[in-house]
C-alpha cells in the first residue's frame, strides 16, 4: 500500500507534504476498513457458512427440539412460541431464570428477555407464518443442508459479503466486537480457530494486539509513502528531479555553520574552499553533499549534511543543514563533487 501511495504521489506530482499526508492517511484508513471487511467475511465463511453446509437445517436449528412433539398440532406450537419469552428456555426446576453456565453478554441477555421464542429464533422467516408453511419447511429441513435451506430455499437472511459489510459499518463493528469477545487464536497456537478455550486471546488484550498492528502498519505505510517524496520538483519539466546521489568528496565542517549557510547563499562555489585534499585523514567533523538535477541541467538542487564522529570513529551526529538550495549547472558538473 505504501509503495502504491508513493507511486500515486509521483504520478500526480503532489509537491505539498500536508496534502500528501492527508491523502495517505485517508487511503490507509480506507484500506484498513476494506481489510476488516474481508477479514470478517472470511471469518464468517470459515466459522459459520461452512458449518451450515456440514449439517441439515433440522440439526443446525434444532427444529426437532421445538416442533418434535407427537400429537401436538403445529398451529398450537406456533401460538405458544409467539406468546412465551425466550428467557423461559433458561428456567430451572424451581421456575427461576438461570443464565449461569452460558457464555452470554449483557446485550444478549437483554435481547433474550425482550423477545418471544418465535421472534428470537427467527421462525417467521426460517419456517413461515402459518401451520401449512411451517410443516412444509420442517420437511425440507430434514434433507437440505442449513446453508441451502437458509439462503436459497427460505431466503431467511441476506448473506453477508465483503460489499455488504463495506456498506454496513454498524454490522461490521458488531461482528468485530463478537470476534474480540470470543477470540480466534490461543497463546499456545497461532491456529485460526473459533475455539472457545479459556486460553483464547480476547477482550482488552486482543484490542491491544489489533491496535499495535494498526499503528505498526501505519508507520511502515507512511514511511513507504514518502520514499522519493523528498526529491525536488522541476516545474519547467513538470517532473521530479533526477537524484545524483551523495558526492564522494567530503568537505571540512566550519565552526560557524550559520555563517557557512549565508556564504553558500551568496555563492555555492564557496563550498569548494572547504575541500578536504585527497590523501588527508577524515576529520571528526565534515560535510557531505547530495545533488539533484533536471534533465537539461538548467534547474538543480543541493542538500548539505553535517557529520560528527567520536574518537573511536563512531558516528555521533548527522544533520541536514541545507535543503534544496538551487545551484548552477557549472556547480553540478564540477569535478570537485563527482
Main pleated sheet: 5 strands, antiparallel
Count of DSSP-assigned helices? 15
Tell me how many strands there are: 7
Report how far the terminal alpha carbons are from each other.
36 Å
The level of helicity is 40-55%
Q: Give the integer mean of the pLDDT values.
A: 90
Features:
alpha+beta, 5-stranded antiparallel sheet
Can you walk me through this structure?
The protein has 338 residues and is α+β, with helices and mostly antiparallel strands. It is 48% helix and 13% strand. The protein contains 15 helices and 7 strands. Strands 3, 4, 5, 6 and 7 form a 5-stranded antiparallel β-sheet that branches. A hairpin with a 5-residue loop joins strand 6 and strand 7. Helix 1 packs parallel to helix 13 (203-225) and helix 2 packs across helix 13 (203-225). The radius of gyration is 35 Å and the shape is elongated. The mean pLDDT is 90.
Give a topology summary.
Blueprint (H helix, E strand, L loop, with lengths): L1 H10 L5 H37 L3 H5 L1 H5 L6 H10 L22 H9 L2 H4 L2 H4 L4 H13 L2 H8 L8 H5 L2 H14 L20 H23 L7 E2 L4 E2 L1 E5 L4 E2 L4 H10 L18 E9 L6 E10 L5 E13 L1 H4 L6
Antiparallel strand pairs: 1-2, 3-5, 4-5, 5-6, 6-7
Helix pairs in contact: 1-13, 2-13
